[in-house]
Amino acid sequence: MNINEKIRMLRELNHWSQEEMAERLGMSHNGYAKIERGETRLNLPRLEQIAEIFETDLMDLMQPENLHYN
Q1: pLDDT value, residue 49
Q2: In terms of Cα–Cα distance, which of 63, 56, 59, 65 is closest to 11?
Q3: How far is CA 50 from CA 26, 61, in A?
Q4: What gap in Å lies between CA 21 and CA 66, rounded to an integer?
Q5: What letter does residue 38 receive in the DSSP assignment?
Q6: How crowded is the C-beta side of 14, counted as CA atoms within 13 Å?
């Protein structure tokens, strides 16, 4: 599973729309949609921000076998 697929899965588990997630990240809906489609390379600060929103460790976010759902 790619990082973009994990992000989408976590967003859906939280019952958030792409618009809500984009707002939490302080970005446009289109920009966030590109993340989920894998069209945007994620930098470390953005990955850290996403991990914080999902209340998970960055390494857990990057390793699917260690995902923790809060």
Answers
A1: 97
A2: 56
A3: 11, 9
A4: 22
A5: T
A6: 20
55 within 8 A of 70, measured Cβ to Cβ: yes
Instruction: Show the tokens assigned to 34.
Output: 């590109």
Taking the C-alpha atoms of residue 3 and residue 48, their distance in angstroms, rounded to an integer, is 13
With cut-offs at 50, 70 and 90, classify the pLDDT of residue 60: confident
pLDDT digits (tens, 9 = 90+) for 5-56: 999 999 999 999 999 999 999 999 999 999 999 999 999 999 999 999 999 9
Report the pLDDT value the prediction gives residue 10, as an integer from 0 to 100: 95
Query: How many residues appear in the chain?
Result: 70
Give residues with Cβ within 8 angstroms of 7, minimum separation 6: 35, 36, 50, 61
Amino acid making up residue 34: K
